[in-house]
Write a structure and sequence with these properties.
It comes from Paenibacillus cisolokensis. This is Haloacid dehalogenase. It is a single chain. It contains eight helices and eight strands; from the N terminus they run ββαααβαβαβαβαβαβ. By secondary structure, the chain is α/β, with parallel strands linked by helices. It folds into two domains: 141 residues, HAD superfamily/HAD-like (Rossmann fold), CATH 3.40.50.1000; 61 residues, no CATH class. Strand 4, helix 5 and strand 5 form a beta-alpha-beta unit.
């Protein structure tokens, strides 16, 4: 199962490395409400099929002005900063990062959160000393499930061949982004069936972060 060829691992942050307290459901409802009020999206849009990032992506496809886009990102930032105040590492996260770093593996975080919120959370939890690059939404062309954040990670760590990457995350949007970037994906705390329903084909799923070492 292991692959000694892995030289770089891309992590999602919320509920993968960081036990997030962000109210993602409330964030999504707030963004949706703003878009419905401005008649960008229909009120009967099936919300269960979307995340905050896919709602924003859908709005951008419809050509919303930059002012509204910034307003939506500000809504997300408020929820992020509030939810990260007391958030701590996921069980086993620091131990896993330390083990991977000791093997000379580059560690990167790709998150739809703002750059500032992500860096502050990693610094406060002590995980920043293990992470080589942080790719927040300001460093992406588009939010996950777009693969742009993963491609930016590959660009910044250009010494690592494209076929030597692995990624891990807790959501289907992580899986789609990774898959579309050509990076093998491991699902954390999410069932294969749930990922398959979204078109994600992981190389495996894990319940505990230490299990990721099976794939390295």
């Amino acid at each position: 199962m292991g692959n000694a060829g892995v030289k770089g691992v891309i992590f999602d942050m919320d509920n993968t490395l960081l036990r997030s307290r962000i109210d993602f459901a409330a964030m999504k409802r707030s963004i949706f409400r703003a878009l419905v009020e401005r008649r960008v999206l229909a009120a009967d849009l099936p919300l269960d099929n979307h995340t905050s990032s896919t709602l924003i992506a859908l709005a951008l496809e419809k050509g919303i002005p930059g002012e509204l886009h910034r307003e939506l990102l500000a809504v997300a930032a408020r929820y992020e900063l509030d939810g990260m105040r007391d958030a701590g590492p996921e069980p086993g996260a620091i131990e896993l990062l330390s083990a991977l770093q000791s093997r000379g593996i580059a560690l990167v975080v790709v998150t739809n959160n703002s750059q500032a919120a992500a860096e502050e959370a990693l610094l406060r939890t002590g995980m920043d000393e293990f992470v080589e690059e942080v790719i927040g939404r300001e460093r992406m062309a588009s939010l996950k499930p777009s693969p742009s954040g993963y491609r930016e990670a590959q660009r910044r760590c250009g010494r690592i061949p494209r076929e030597r990457w692995l990624s891990v995350g807790d959501s289907w949007i992580d899986g789609i982004a990774s898959q579309d970037a050509g990076i093998p994906f491991v699902g954390y705390g999410i069932a294969k069936e749930e990922l398959a329903a979204r078109g994600v084909r992981p190389i495996g799923t894990i319940r505990h972060l230490r299990e990721l070492l099976r794939y390295i």
